[in-house]
Amino acid sequence: MRNCTLPLCLLIGLVLALPDASTEPERTGLAKPTGAVEGTVYYQPDAKRRWRYQRYYVSKPKTGEIAEVVVAVSGMTGKPRRAGQVAVMDQVNYRFVPETLAIRAGDSVRFKNSDDALHNVLSHDGAKPFNINLVKGGEHVQRFDRARGLAKPLRLGCVYHGAMQAWVYVFDHPHYQVTATDGKFRLENLPPGKLELAIRHAAGRLASKKQIIIEAGKTTRIDIRISPDDLIQSQEKQTNSP
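Below the sequence we write its predicted structure tokens.
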């Protein structure tokens, strides 16, 4: 720098002052504004048509918040996952806990046995059926690479205890959630426009769909009420029995 002329020094200083292009966001890859949807799923009973599973999934009959409902946006796709996440499903007091899982294609499930009894995890559904025995304290990790969506959950059972059952939903996008006992859900990063919000309760054989409008930078609020009117028809039970 000692021997540079004044114009050359000014030019060098200008170049050094320019921002590094590698640290700037790509102009063509800027994230578009998104919106969200949130709400609560309620069960509305009918005295003439009793839903036999109500006592298992509706902890507050007066208000009707329902657990184990899978809420998802229909018609969405996403990039494949290379390194998936691992969800956990335990076997406690002769039950799968949780009974319903929703994961993304490429994710895995760690099945555990916390009971003293010998258990099993069995599924005939999907491209890769499996049948695994689990002793007390045993674990098995199973990866799910193929998305089946909301209509085709993978049904799980235990060959030693026929009453045990569970479901795994596999999606090819991140816009899904399973309700807890409060029935609440929230789905974020949704593209603006008209979308279809679908719900399904595998154990109770309930399904419903709602049209929603998503606005950029805003949260759409919708409460969903399901009833015996939303019971899955017998024909679907035969073809896509959860």
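Residues 6-17 form the longest helix (12 residues).
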